[in-house]
Design a protein that fits this description.
Number of strands: 6
Distance between the termini: 148 Å
Structural class: alpha/beta
CATH class of one domain: Alpha Beta
Number of helices: 3
CATH topology of one domain: Trna Endonuclease, Chain: A, domain 1
Shape: rod-shaped
CATH architecture of one domain: 3-Layer(aba) Sandwich
Strand content: 15-25%
Length: about 200
């Protein structure tokens, strides 16, 4: 629900009923999150720029990647202010944006999207048949969506290169001279005696 729009009670009830019917319609193929009325059950994006579309279709696997965002409008809410406040932001989400409008407001919705350069993947019309709503796709955008700017990564602090540790790194150790070990004194060889001359 748009923060700038207060719907008449009858339209708000119809709006929320359509959201719940879409939830039942997509339940087999997707994990379906809904935000009826002023509820904020499932978001697209992260605070403070998180968005709360009427229906969020997510993959059934563990990643729960958003496959599509859906906005449901009533007769009162298909207008210029709503287009700028809601559609423009949802069209920049990283998922196809589908717009559901009453059958009589399709041309108005298309003109608002084109005049404000809002990329809508698909526009669906709805009309009541008894207690149920019938949905009909009336427009599919064949052009590629505009490229979305990537979020700026936080600058990483430059780390000083780490020098490999060497044997000489760290505090220098004082060299201590080891006392010389005295070798055991061996016996000195006895001096050779000069040969004595025999007396004649």
């Amino acid at each position: 629900m748009s923060p700038i729009l207060v719907r008449p009670v009858r339209e708000q009830l119809e709006h929320d009923r359509i959201i719940r019917q879409l939830q039942a319609k997509f339940r087999r193929k997707y994990e379906v999150g809904i935000n009826p009325g002023a509820e904020q059950n499932v978001a697209v994006g992260v605070p403070p720029s998180a968005l709360y579309p009427d229906v969020v279709l997510q993959a059934l696997d563990r990643g729960r990647k958003v496959q599509c965002v859906v906005e449901v409008e009533t007769g009162e809410s298909v207008n210029h202010l709503e287009a700028l406040a809601e559609w423009a932001h949802l069209s920049r989400a990283r998922a196809p944006f589908h717009l559901y409008v009453p059958a009589g407001m399709v041309d108005v919705a298309r003109r608002l999207a084109e005049d404000n350069n809002i990329y809508v993947s698909e526009i669906w019309s709805y009309h009541a048949v008894g207690d149920q709503m019938r949905f009909t796709m009336v427009y599919r955008n064949k052009e590629a969506p505009p490229p979305q700017p990537k979020p700026a990564a936080a600058p990483r602090e430059a780390k000083a290169p780490v020098k490999p540790a060497t044997k000489d790194s760290g505090a220098k150790k004082k060299l201590v001279k080891k006392p010389a070990v005295k070798k055991p004194a061996g016996r000195k060889p006895a001096p050779k005696k000069a040969p004595q001359k025999k007396k004649k």
